[in-house]
Each structure stands twice: as C-alpha cells, then as structure tokens.
Design a protein that fits this description.
Blueprint lengths: L2 H9 L4 H14 L4 E2 L8 H11 L5 H12 L1 H6 L6 E5 L5 H9 L4 E6 L2 H14 L4 E2 L2 E2 L17 E5 L9 H15 L4 E7 L4 H7 L6 H17 L8 E8 L4 E8 L3 E5 L2 E5 L4 E8 L3 H10 L2 E8 L5 E8 L1
Parallel strand pairs: 1-12, 2-3, 2-6, 3-4, 3-5, 6-7
Antiparallel strand pairs: 7-14, 8-9, 9-12, 10-11, 13-14
Helix pairs in contact: 1-2, 3-10
The protein binds N,N-dimethyl-L-histidine.
Length: about 325
C-alpha cells in the first residue's frame, strides 16, 4: 500500500486537525529531502520551550527587538493615528504590544491567532490594564485572508507583526503574507514589522544551537509529538539537532540528523533513514534592510521608517499600504 492510501485508510478515525498533521508528516517524510513544517513545533511543550529560547543568552532577537520597541516607542507611536485599530498578526504574549500601548493611546486592539483560547486570556489581562482600549480577539489563521471585526472597520488600521515571524516564511510566502495583510488592512494602513538581520555566522548559529541544548529539545520535541499524537516510534536518542547557516539562501536551517541507519514505523509504513540523512524542520530567513524594503514594495507597501539597535542585529520597519 502506498503512503497516501495508508494515511487515508488509517486516519479516518482521527479528528480533522490530527488527520491533517498525519498527512503532512507522511508527505514530508516520504520526500527525497525529508521535511516537517515548523508550524507543528508549537504544541504545549514546544510553546513552553520557545519561551525558554527567547530568554537564552545566545538568542538575541527577542530582547533586541524589545529594546528597539522600548527605546523608540515614542517615534513609532507618532506613526500610529490616535483613533487607530492595531491588528496584531499571530499575537502571543502581549509584552511587545504593551510597549506601544504605554506610549500611545489607540482606540482598539485586534489580536489575531489560531489559538483562540490563548488570545482570549491574554486579551482579558490587557483589557484590565488598559480599560479604555476596545479589545477584539480574533481566532483565525493569520496567513490566510480573514475579515476584521465590524467594530473596527471604519477606524484607521495599523498592523503589528513583531518577532521576525516573517523570517519563517519562504520568500514567496512572505510576499503573499504582506499582500494579504495589505488587502485585510486596506489602502493607507500602516504596519510595524520586526525583521531579523543578516550577520556573522558565529552569532547566528549559536542563536539556533545554544549551549544549554534548549533549541535541540525544541527541535526534537517534534518527534515526541509525532510519537504521541500519531503513534510513531521515533527513537529520540537516534536523532540529533543541527543548525546551519545557508549563506546563499540567507537563512538558518534547522535539521534533525539520523545518527544511524534506521527504520521508523508510522501508520504501518516503514520510513527508512540512512546514517547522516536529515529531516529539514525550519528555515529562519535573515534580511538586509534593502532586501526587506524591496520585498515590501513588491507586495504593495511603501517603506516609511526603520529602526535598528546600535549593533544592527535586528530591525523594526514602518510601512504604508499603497
Ligand atoms: C518564531 N521564529 C521567529 C523563531 C526564529 O527565530 O526563527 C523560531 C525559532 N526556531 C528556533 N529558535 C527560534
């Protein structure tokens, strides 16, 4: 039986999300370069490990971006109309938006995230701290078109997309995301977006392969998740985390390397690994200021301003929809 028939016959009892996960995993593991989507990193354990990553000494993006937002909050706030609705794409913890809200009063905040429960809890906490702010949490996949809540439709819009999550999209996907954000927010809208910058490999690689092994656990957690949710039998001790900088493609790549020849069982299928063969689990693209501006222009946005930290590790851009 080929894998596609196997997955169809064996996943009909699974809930739709798990069945989609199963299809993606089988599809990815039967390619010549095996791959798994980074969107599957974020189960409960993976989300906690990601928070730990953001606190690592080697992982500079989060604290550098927070530093820029803190130091430049007043200048960023000048570009946000006072009666605006701020729409955050992929809102997680509200630490970053709080820096902007403390510097500037806006009318409404729309956190958009696939995980509805999480944003509702975060939105309630934010509402307590900013009682005059209208908070409208929206459970949606922010990479696809979605409709804004009617209450904010007539307000000027400002998108907020921190964290360099754009870097986890392939360049074509990044362009499509920016085009879709422009369509959702409308002509004249502004967007504040965090973008990680290209830099020396000696800084980049440790940021994705830290001494304490937290990023390794984050990467390997994907196999734990596949074992638990899909009944596979990955032997965790037979795979290792690897992070490499692919300079030609301007990206950090994360892989899981098979440490020996081995066979893994999944839905009755045998998935063979040669020693040294890898599963490609994530790309994290790094931009130059000029390459990000070109991408924004191609997607229908005009660059307005940009801020970096003194060491030019990370950038925050303000762009306006054409
Ligand atoms: C969420 N994203 C921006 C992180 C990044 O830096 O690409 C994900 C990550 N993967 C390993 N460490 C952090």
């Amino acid at each position: 039986m080929n894998v596609h028939v196997a997955v169809q016959t064996q996943t009909h009892r699974l809930d739709p999300n798990t069945a989609a996960f199963a299809r993606d995993v089988l599809d990815g593991l039967t390619r010549s370069q095996k791959e798994l989507s980074p969107k599957y990193f974020y189960d409960d354990a993976g989300s906690e490990l990601f928070v730990d990553i953001t606190r690592l000494p080697e992982y500079y993006p989060t604290r550098t971006e927070l530093g820029i937002l803190h130091d430049r909050a007043a200048e960023i706030a000048e570009l946000i109309p006072p009666d605006a609705a701020v729409v955050e794409f992929g809102a997680g913890a509200t630490t970053k938006i709080r820096l902007l809200l403390a510097a500037h009063q806006v009318a409404a905040y729309v956190p958009v995230d696939i995980s509805g429960d999480f944003i509702v809890t975060q939105a309630e906490a934010l509402q307590r701290d900013f009682p005059r702010l209208a908070v409208h949490p929206l459970a949606a996949d922010f990479t696809k078109p979605f409709a804004l809540p009617p209450a904010v439709r007539d307000m000027p819009k400002v998108g907020f997309f921190p964290g360099s999550t754009l870097g986890n999209f392939e360049p074509q996907e990044a362009r499509r995301f920016l085009e879709s954000a422009r369509d959702i927010l409308g002509r004249g809208a502004r967007m504040i977006i965090g973008v990680d910058l290209e830099k020396d490999e000696r800084v980049l690689v440790p940021a994705y392969d830290d001494a304490a092994g937290v990023t390794a656990r984050f990467n390997l957690n994907l196999l734990i998740r596949i074992n638990r949710e899909l009944g596979a039998n990955f032997d965790l001790s037979a795979f290792a985390h690897r992070a490499i900088y692919n300079r030609d493609q301007h990206r950090i790549e994360m892989h899981l390397v098979s440490l020996r020849d081995q066979t893994v069982h999944l839905f009755g299928e045998r998935i063979g690994f040669r020693a040294g063969e890898t599963i490609h689990t994530e790309n994290s693209y790094k931009y130059s200021l000029a390459r990000f501006r070109t991408l924004a222009q191609q997607a229908g946005w005009t660059p307005m301003r940009c801020w970096t930290d003194p060491d030019a590790m990370f950038s925050v851009h303000a762009i306006e929809a054409d």
